[in-house]
């Protein structure tokens, strides 16, 4: 049996700081989106509880992650993310400011495609997470809303295998 070929593409990411400003307040989501986030969060939280105390892992949902001290409103708010090691004050966090001592970027970020903004998760989030230095980004499109013009719809796919950040 012939092994599968692997293709890797690397290119410099140009920061789009104005487009990456996080909105203040909650953004309403459809119930299907919220349910998918809830299920992924629950599954990862159960996994994190099972591997304790050997590993210190926290699971967050909609936690603003900011990585540029000189642009503190710029960031990402993954639908679900895995942070390892977990910050000691995790239960009190309002946002994860990576320039603060003891803070690490998420190892895994998961974005659930929204029916109202499917282009965002197929086109623009990858560069934001790469610039942040996230190790792995997975885009989950449970309702197959992704636009064909951007390679969609695909139910589950890794969107960022190596950030280089």
CATH superfamily: tt1808, chain A
Total number of beta strands: 7
Mean pLDDT: 84
- Structural class by helix and strand composition: alpha/beta
Gross morphology is globular
The CATH topology annotation reads as tt1808, chain A
Widest sheet, order of strands? 1-3-5-6-7
Q: What's the CATH architecture name?
A: Alpha-Beta Complex
N-to-C span:
35 Å
- Total of domains: 1
CATH class call: Alpha Beta
Largest β-sheet summary: 5 strands, mixed
Radius of gyration (CA) equals 16 Å
Spans of at least 5 consecutive residues with low confidence: none
Strand content: 15-25%
What do you see in this structure?
This protein is of the alpha/beta class. The chain has one domain (31-160): Alpha-Beta Complex (tt1808, chain A). Helices cover 22% and strands 17% of the residues. The chain has helices spanning 31-51, 118-132; strands at residues 58-60, 64-66, 80-83, 95-97, 108-112, 136-140, 156-160. The protein has a five-stranded mixed sheet with strand order 1-3-5-6-7. Strands 2-4 form a two-stranded parallel ribbon. Strand 5, helix 2 (118-132) and strand 6 (136-140) form a beta-alpha-beta unit. It is globular and about 45 Å long.
